[in-house]
Amino acid sequence: xxxxxxxxxxxxxxxxxxxxxxxxxxxxxxxxxxxxxxxxxxxxxxxxxxxxxxxxxxxxxxxxxxxxxxxxxxxxxxxxxxxxxxxxxxxxxxxxxxxxxxxxxxxxxxxxxxxxxxxxxxxxxxxxxxxxxxxxxxxxxxxxxxxxxxxxxxxxxxxxxxxxxxxxxxxxxxxxxxxxxxxxxxxxxxxxxxxxxxxxxxxxxxxxxxxxxxxxxxxxxxxxxxxxxxxxxxxxxxxxxxxxxxxxxxxxxxxxxxxxxxxxxxxxxxxxxxxxxxxxxxxxxxxxxxxxxxxxxxxxxxxxxxxxxxxxxxxxxxxxxxxxxxxxxxxxxxxxxxxxxxx
Length: 343
Hints:
Elements: H1 13-28, E1 30-35, E2 40-41, E3 44-45, H2 54-59, E4 65-69, H3 86-99, E5 102-107, H4 125-128, H5 135-149, E6 162-166, H6 184-201, E7 207-211, H7 219-222, E8 234-240, H8 245-266, E9 270-276, H9 285-294, E10 301-304, H10 323-330, E11 335-336
Parallel strand pairs: 1-4, 1-10, 1-11, 4-5, 5-6, 6-7, 7-8, 8-9, 9-10
Antiparallel strand pairs: 2-3
Helix pairs in contact: 8-9, 9-10
């Protein structure tokens, strides 16, 4: 699968190293990931005095893949859309990288035309492309994104490599960059413009670029908005359980099979970039639903969404219904947590 071509032809060596590490993971199993895992959880938030995770509290180990979101960085705010201070996020990213984990970052950007949030779907994409009324607004947003990404350095001063996942779930209708709020061609232009601004204008060279639609059933659907093999490094897919176990397992299998086929054709690593079952209302969900469906499929990582509260969580907390099964799941040799692979 491995090739030395990256979307950013000036990418730093550590970016290629991260890509190769990700590819190696899929030969052993898949990395377990969690969004905002060390930033907060059910009943707690990071406070600089302690370092924890609901994953660690239940399973006794940390995830290998760490997800973060930089929504609100476009306005140069102090905190992201989930109230995580960017100063803390920077520290947590440095810690995760130092411990041997790897980082994936999404961006729930506000609507640049209406000033609403990501879910406010006033048409915006055509207005932020070059020549559009809000092009300069968007360029300034990318400058703020770049400044944050360029501040992510390890203890030796080297930039930390990041799997960057902008404008995800573009085939859904809930984000302003999604169908039907922009054409597929405008989406592709937005992707190219964003990559060119980051790499060319602002000299950000520590990113792998991740493309991740939501639910699909065919390769044609998956590739509808695809900007091209030369502009994407990793293929992802987001999928959540909303109905029955039987239906979800069937849909998940179909989606992973589509993802695998597309990835094999383009020689790229692939991952479930978001997945989960809100409140995990199935005591054996980890072993008999998730792992039973995705194990052995060649995925590089599987990232569960965030733990906001007892009303909205995707990883069990202590004594939660699925906690016992999660512990069993975490001991499977092909489910890779922090410490299960060499840094």
